[in-house]
Amino acid sequence: MDDRKLQPLIREIRIQNERKYAEAAYFFVLEALDFTIFLEGRGQKPCEGRHISPQELLSGLRRYAQEEFGPLAPYAFRSWGVQTTRDFGSLVFQMCEAGLLNKTERDKPQDFANGFDFEVAFQEGESVSGT
């Protein structure tokens, strides 16, 4: 879905959730999800329709942020109101409630808690391959 179609929906999600997170945070999560789906499907059958677990998404978020922002990722996250990986869970579940993303009955927002420490994960020279 293109950004022009997503923008009104994301704005509505933000309004319903008291604008806790910047619009960019929602778009980043969606982009990181696409990135994760691509990575998970590499070297095998496409994973269309395959569920991405919270742990897989956190790994993909980390890898995508490393590629996009490098050691500046924690600063970008904080500018969006994202302080910990638990906030990524909140973003995901807000989008699930709005029908933008899907979840299984086993998925819980707390699955995103303690995923990784922003400061450690994005230290200069820190590699995320294999995670």
What would you say this structure looks like, in words?
This protein has six helices and no strands. The protein is globular. It has a domain of 87 residues. By secondary structure, it is mostly helical. The model has no long low-confidence stretch (mean pLDDT 89). Helix 2 crosses helix 3. The two termini are 28 Å apart.
Short précis:
56% of the residues lie in helices and 0% in strands.
Helix content: 55-70%
Q: Which band does the percent of strand residues land in?
A: under 5%
Number of strands: 0
Distance between the termini: 28 Å
Largest sheet: none
The structure class reads mainly alpha
Question: Could you name the key traits of this structure?
Answer:
mainly alpha; globular; 131 residues
Outline the secondary-structure elements:
Elements: H1 3-16, H2 23-41, H3 54-69, H4 73-79, H5 85-97, H6 118-121
Helix pairs in contact: 2-3
